[in-house]
Amino acid sequence: MIAITKSITPMFLKNTFVHHVHFWLKNKDDQAKLIEGLNTLIPITHIRDMHIGVPADTNRSVIDRSYDVSLLLLFDDLAAEEAYQVDPTHVIFAEEYAKPLCAKVVVVDSVNI
Predict the structure, then answer these.
(1) In CATH, what number is assigned to the domain containing residue 27?
(2) 49 falls within a domain
(3) 3-58 per-position pLDDT tens digit
(4) Whole-angstrom distance, CA of residue 80 vs CA of residue 62
(5) CB 34: neighbour CB atoms within 10 A?
(6) How many domains are contained in the chain?
């Protein structure tokens, strides 16, 4: 058996505005369509990092797996996140994908302490 040791210290994100969005679909069959829409956000220059995901197969009592799709965005600061909110690509995503496809959307924003 080979022992694997972690030689890299975890990166501590500084100067980061985190925007985490969870989507609940009206129709589960629309998951691919919503993900297609989320991918249209990729070119928005205000976004530093982006992750599109679905619930992981983890089953601890503290985990909420009831959502259908999640979007995690990292920005340099609040100003970048605010610019993202009014970016025409984001506005089109909200109008053409999120609003018609989703029954519920929950957003959690956080900043460094």
Answers:
(1) 3.30.70.100
(2) yes
(3) 666 678 888 888 899 999 999 999 999 999 999 999 999 999 999 999 999 999 99
(4) 31
(5) 21
(6) 1
> Whose CA is closest to 66, among 78, 54, 75?
54
Inside any domain, residue 50: yes
Q: Is 65 inside a domain boundary?
A: no
Residues linked to residue 23 through DSSP beta bridges, in sequence order: 69, 105
| pTM recorded for the entire structure | 0.89
- For the residues of 18-62, what is the DSSP string, one character each? EEEEEEEESSGGGHHHHHHHHHTTTT-TT-SEEEEE---S---TT
Q: How far apart are CA 112 and CA 89, in angstroms?
A: 27
CB atoms within 10 A of CB 84: 19
66 assigned to some structural domain = no
